[in-house]
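Input.
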Amino acid sequence: MSQGQGQAPTGQDQDQVTGMVCLESELQDGQMKEVEVDEQKILLVRTQGLYSAVGSKCSHYGAPLIKGALVRDRVRCPFHGACFNIKTGDIEEYPGLDCLPSYKVKVEDGKVYVSVNKKSLKVYKRVKDMSCRVSGVRHTILLIGGGPASLLCAETLRQNRYEGRIVMVTRDTLPPIDKPKLSKAMHLESASLLLRPTDFFQQYDIELWTQKEAVSVNPVEKTVKLNDGSLHYYDQLLISTGCRARPLSCPGSELEGVRILQSYEDAKEIHLSCVGKKAVVVGASFIGMEVASYLADKAASVAMVGNGSYPFERSLGPEIGKMTMQMLEESKVKFYMNDGVVEIRGENGKVKEVVLKSGAVVETDVVIAGIGVIPNSDFLKESQVEVDSRKAVIIDKFMRTNIPNVFGAGDVTSFPLTIRKDQRVNIGHWQLASAHGRVAALNMLQKQIKIDSVPFFWTVLLGKSVRYTGYGEGYTEIIFKGKVEERKFLAFYIK
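Output.
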């Protein structure tokens, strides 16, 4: 049966374009089909005998949802696991910010018709309705941090008709950006990284204060002091300050040309300083490997120094670690594994070479460290907000700290993970930070919603994506489907 314009069912709206997209018998319960109305691709779904139709592309990076998984009333994106309600199009799991458009479906004489509003043709994502601040409402929610947790918290508050003042404080120079791209595409202009344009914050009365940092919190007075000396009152507070990159501490680490990747400016500097130059990446971490992968065809040479036998050996296992190492070696990245940096030597204040534990000396112009992160919680020292041994802020399943009206979200927190029987964990995943922000907002509004997201993480090396879901703390066995050496496989971690 061809798709497209058919005889429209009776009572059609003048602003709608309606197309007959399939016969009722073509789709069984639990099945999806990508159809077209006036060249607009639509995802048609049948569950429990009822049809629904939503946008066909994920609102995150535009992946085709027809290749995803349909589980009950949700379709899960095949790329990075975002979930959308098939009846409303609303986003219910992250990454991403926006919902899918939803369309009217009608079944008549065994034929399925979908109607699309002419104004929404070619639109594949939808911003959920939001309120604004109402003058006279004095309640203030202060969000410390400019990442996805703060942004999702602010948006969720407005989506749930919060009418008070929202202030987001970030030490960054930019509004919230798509930070996972920083290590994968370091040359991108800032405009293409923004999660929301500046006028979005103005439109929904979200005050955005850039280049400001919290230096202390006083929960008794309900005030936050910023690095400019100013004092700000809050009714409710969100701590979502994330983590900072751990710097190198060896002799020579203060030399010009030694870099960490933290901000948009860092990514830009690394890109500019490495093109046509020699680069050494210290730390075969996900960030380190992504940076090496990005620089492989841009720098004159790239060397990777790692302290294990293979990259990702502890988290993904030796087979996958070896595969990723081979991929980068094929792109002329040289590995120094089971090794470490003991000294960085310079000339005229600039990096010249790196001395390794093994005795090897590697010539270089730039050194980039990817050796882990430190939670940004130092400003809470005098606040009585509880932190763990790693300095992560301890929160419960409702994102609450031990102090009333003080919430935490994202990489800076340690929280109970549902799939591990509420074991307390600190997980630095973009998807989880987004979910934390939403749950924090709902609990600020007294909705009593728990965090129950399953962790999801992805990395991209030389165009190949590795995706990981769940929470692993070691394994006794890895079961593979497919072949790692062919770079097409599924791995199950058993303990």
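The longest strand covers residues 16-23.
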